[in-house]
Amino acid sequence: MPSLLSDPLSSEGLKKSKHKKAKEQSSPLEQEDIGKMKIKKSRKRKADEEDKSDIVTDSSPEVPEKKKKKPEANGLAVKKLKGEETVEPESGSDVDDPNALSNFRISKTLVETLNSRGIKALFPIQAMTFDLILDGFDLVGRARTGQGKTLAFVLPMLESLINGRIKASRKTGYGRPPSVLVLLPTRELAVQVHSDFEVYGGAVGLSSCCVYGGAPFRAQELSIKRGVDIVVGTPGRVKDHLERGTLDLRALNFRVLDEADEMLRMGFVEDVELILGKVEDASKVQTLLFSATLPDWVKEISARFLKADKKTADLVGNEKLKASASVRHLALPCLKSTRQQILPDIIRCYSSGGRTIIFTETKESASELSGLLPGSRALHGDVMQQQREVILTGFRSGKFLVLVATNVAARGLDINDVQLIIQCEPPRDVEAYIHRSGRTGRAGNTGVAILLYEPKYKFSVSRIERESGVKFEHISAPQPADIAESVGSEAANAISSVSDSVIPVFRSQAEELLNSSGLPAVDLLAKALAKAAGFLDIKKRSLLSSLENYVTLHLQTGNTIYSPSWVLNIKCISNLLVIMDFVRFVFSVLGRYLPQEKVQNLESVSITADSYGVVFDVPADDVNEFLEGKGFCTLPLDEAKKTLPKLLRRFKTRLALSLSRSWKHCLHCKIGITKAPTQGEEGLVVEVVVFMVDNVVADSPVVEVAAIVAEEVVEVEAGITSSRGIERYSCFNPNFVAGNSL
């Protein structure tokens, strides 16, 4: 009788002779147990073997014509019991899904185990690679994060070991050497992948062990010595076992490099080469590379480890969008000093009550933030391995919902219901952003990724957009109304869930409070909701800088402020002068009806992109004074309530004031530009405009005004160099002597 793993063509005559009878007897439930044969092997043999690395792009395998079969037990066909009813298949069943488990050569035990974990069909990367791996090809697999790369190699390898071509040659018994070696870059990833082998490998009688640094060596040694089928580990600890002679790779059938780009890029090349070199006959070993990203240089290095007829299964290809499409990407300008103030509100507004991971660049920042966020934990390189496992277990189980981590947790960790990812600053490379944001929106779910950045590093946000294809939604820090809308309903539900049995006990206090407060009942209830949500008061917050106790105002001029050509052609000096003159004009207008000290306390000034206005921050205590005084001003001045208008460029108040104050000293200036701007990979090349006082009267101070109008380092006239960033200026120096550096 044909087994589940037999070639459908090899039993064609038997199928034809039994087809009519089977069609009358077999039920869809039996069909589900039996499964349908996947793509005919003759179809796969049509691949162009002359191509050294075939690219597989079709993730929807052909489903053979529906044929009723007799139910099978342990791979053998059995007769249908008399009296069993035939049930017509329901529309939309997994028989209609080309990626349904029944369409692949997966044994009944593994199908049942997958079903018990809610898996009814393979993900595209799994469907695309299953037959290639089962048929013995070396393979490079690439898919976006969260698309099931781990099971893409776990399932076909297990089938090969228990039912496939390797079954006869696989070592068994006490002390057997491993048949599979899986290498991963971090301990957390190794533990996670090992857990999948424990579940699915254990279901079919295969044993596995996990080896990594930070855990007792002796326990790992004893586990290997007893005999295992699968070893999962990090390169460093696997290397230690090889050098001590506790790990034997002579009987290896599979070697897997998971997160291959990270393994080969982050200094593991020598360790990996040493480990792979321990295989006596590499031609008998099947090598698999899996990763979310595979740059060209990684492919070149990986070519040394794979056979010439390797296959490539690529779900990304040359698409620019490499980040998960199920994630909403947001960018929020935020000064480092205000980060800890707005993070709790961001979590309240965007986490939807789910788990949140906050990524920082340093261990110190992770520890500091976790100490400031109630109920959070830190995960970084200084945390002991045992404590790491406790932290990850607690996060997965929901004992706490906020994890503050460095890059150690960024790759491959599959934690359910991570709703929100916050990156405290733009990462150094785009791939890091992709992997971090990929911790949410996994397995068909949706999520939110928020990138915090200081305004002077906005060019980094543009770079991520340009290189990854991600389009950020630019948002401001959550405002009181946003927070109330987000958490108010939760507080209301919490109060509604309280049993009516408490009413008699608390009624007298409630009546006393209502009578003494002098507030309407609805207002008093609003205060109760605020308290339940954790708010004792509501602080104003700037839309422009996210500073607490500041309010953003919008002044509209009604006239064009600048010429857009200034952005592209700095030779139009008059446009820069117009902007400088406008900033001075704004302060002069405000100074007409406000004390000078109030005007000078403005925190920032930004011109709107439509060229008709300016926005700026004022202390919350001064807002009414500004708005009440606008009657003396003919220009509209109002509070920016929800969102900012699109802005051209932010000018620090210090710059604006310096320019306006020094203007009178530049009446007889000469203007020099070192070089014309060019369009480069990082945007406009930085230019410095130097205003030098020339032929001024003897008692006038010598003045230099420098305005950096892009994001990089520049050369100033006469060889003077400046490495100041976009918001760092030396604008007014009465003691400047020509020839001195900035």
TrEMBL record:
Does Nucleotide-binding show up as a keyword for this record?
yes
CDD domains in the record: DEADc (cd00268), GUCT_RH7_like (cd12937), SF2_C_DEAD (cd18787)
* Pfam name, any one: Helicase_C
Could you say which EC number(s) this protein's record lists?
Answer: 3.6.4.13
Compositionally biased spans, kind Basic and acidic residues: 46-55
Q: Which domain of life does this protein belong to?
A: Eukaryota
Q: What residues does the Helicase C-terminal domain cover?
A: 341-491
Gene3D superfamilies the UniProt entry points to:
3.30.70.2280, P-loop containing nucleotide triphosphate hydrolases (3.40.50.300)
Q: Which residues form the Helicase ATP-binding domain?
A: 130-312
Could you list this entry's UniProt keywords, alphabetically sorted: ATP-binding, Helicase, Hydrolase, Nucleotide-binding, RNA-binding
UniProt xrefs under InterPro entries: DD_DDX21-DDX50, DEAD/DEAH_box_helicase_dom, DEAD/DEAH_RhlB, DEAD_box_RNA_helicases, GUCT, Helicase_ATP-bd, Helicase_C-like, P-loop_NTPase
Query: Which portions of the sequence form the region Disordered?
Result: 1-98
Q: Give the catalytic activity.
A: ATP + H2O = ADP + phosphate + H(+)
Indicate, by first and last residue, each region the UniProt record lists as having compositional bias (Acidic residues). 86-97
- What terms describe the molecular function in GO for this protein? ATP binding; hydrolase activity; RNA binding; RNA helicase activity
Of which family is this protein a member? Belongs to the DEAD box helicase family. DDX21/DDX50 subfamily.
Q: What name does UniProt use for this protein?
A: RNA helicase
Origin organism is Zingiber officinale (Ginger)
